[in-house]
Amino acid sequence: MRWSARSCHDRVIAAAAALALAATGAIAAVAPPATAASSVSVSVDAALQLATVPATGVGVNIPVYDANMNAAATPGLLSTAGINTVRYPGGSHSDVYHWQTGAAEGGAYVAPNTGFDAFMGTVRAAGAQPIITANYGSGTPQEAAAWVQYANVTKDYGVKYWEIGNEVYGNGEYNATWEYDTHSSKSATTYADNVLQYISAMKAADPSVKIGAVLTTPGYWPDGIVGPGDTMDWNHTVLSIAGSKIDFAIVHAYPTSTSPADLLTKPQAQNANITGAVRSLINQYAGSNAPNVGIAVTEANAQAYLDTSPNGLFAPDDYLTWLENGAFNVDWWDLRNGTDCTKVTTVEGATDYNDGGMVSSGSPCEPAVNTPFPAYYGIQMISRLGAPGDTLVKAASSSSLLTAHAVRRANGDVDVMLINKDPNNDATVNLSYTGFTPSSATPTVHSYLKNAHGIGTTQSGSPTTQTVPAYGITVVQMHPTSAPCRVVYNKNEWSGVMVGNVTVVNNSLGQVNGWSLGFNFPGDNVITNSWNASVSQSGPSVNAANVSYNPTVPQGGSVQWGFRATWSSSDANPSAFWFNGASCAIG
């Protein structure tokens, strides 16, 4: 919802406190050593797929009032942090900014050299892609369509994702006004009707673009309130009118918190509920289009402890929890923001500058411009965990003070992120695995420690035991054990039904001409159909053999097949596989 940081303060509407502006992490002194170590168990199910890491997953906002938007250092800051999506022209400025002239309504500040072409040069240099917010508040469908035409036809930029307005529900409809809106009616119905006009005009210019509509965040003001001129609340109204035409739904998330400890509970306590509520509404109103409608969190951050270690822990946990629960895009607010120097405090032994940026804006009370805050390093740790195209898999912790996330890499490696939310005690973590057999070699470990100024890398611990320092983040990278063959077993499950996909890698068996794979179901799965294999089952025992078109598996090559099965009491993963009689590693 950011308006402008040039005045060194944030415009916060009291009625919209739940959506108020956000924060990031900071640089500070070294904290005292931890006094004890707690024991935590973490289980990783490398076969239980939660989501594919999207190419648009890790994003950031850069508003047009950032004078350093297109500075020489910016592409490097973005790429080093692993940022792959950049939102423009930034928060509430989006509804006053006219892209053709580079000017903004009402005298809102626009920094020099922040025009669209300059922005695109920076994004391309960073290896990222843009998400553009079209001006709804003071713009027109024709202005937005001209932007699409210029971006994708004239300049061939290939800009795929476009939003219609920022937090449009803040236009006065619910008696709180921070969003500029010149429409005579401020209702959800008016917005939704206009969204259809924007979609029609923009897709006439480029039918391939994906267009999103603004929703209120479920559980946060003004969710559930029926405005004048509407018969339902904002979300039900917008989706009932435009749900069958949009490509994604947009929410913003700045969770309120009463303490650092409370903030660190929010990703697990709220994100799944929010995405679940949005998905339910999409399914209710989008009809046959529902499976195609994504969820984007185009502004995310905390509201307190912005430049200190709590937000450094919150940031990667927040991103990954959103992605695990189905969001395809999460954009931090923002890269550089600015601050109110009267609000500088100390949190967990570090200076909190009250700056919502990932890096310093260089305000008088702050470190030098572009100095990273802890949220920057926390977000950078996501790139140590996985990359677009890798698979987010299930990881569970026995302690609420330690959160785990896991990724199965495309090459079969499994990486685990461990976030210790205890500010005083190290955690001794005992790891166990399903669907993956790690090599006994000492794993590579990346660590971001409390109030540190960078990320460290070493070889330490073992695949089954790691120590995570107090208020630290650790990513453990593991290779599968060496074996003549390796099986990657994926499944998607529903009540009573599951779909399995099996990949067999021939590590060292020479060229295989004709193959079979045997395994036993621990549960009561019954295979009902299969593809790319001839499958027979006797009780729990299964044998899959090649079909006519895939008998050959060269050494170093692989073969894939899949099946659908029913189950009632358990569909637990097989614990062993035999490929032409050879015992295979799993994962």
Automatic annotation (TrEMBL):
Matching entries from SMART domains are given as: CBD_II
Q: Which PROSITE patterns has this protein been placed in?
A: CBM2
Which positions fall inside the CBM2 domain?
478-587
SUPFAM superfamilies according to UniProt:
(Trans)glycosidases, Carbohydrate-binding domain
Protein keywords? Carbohydrate metabolism, Polysaccharide degradation, Signal
Give the signal peptide, or none. Answer: 1-28
Gene3D superfamilies, per database record: 2.60.40.290, Glycosidases, Golgi alpha-mannosidase II
- Protein name, per record: Cellulose binding domain-containing protein
Question: What species does this protein belong to?
Answer: Kitasatospora cathayae
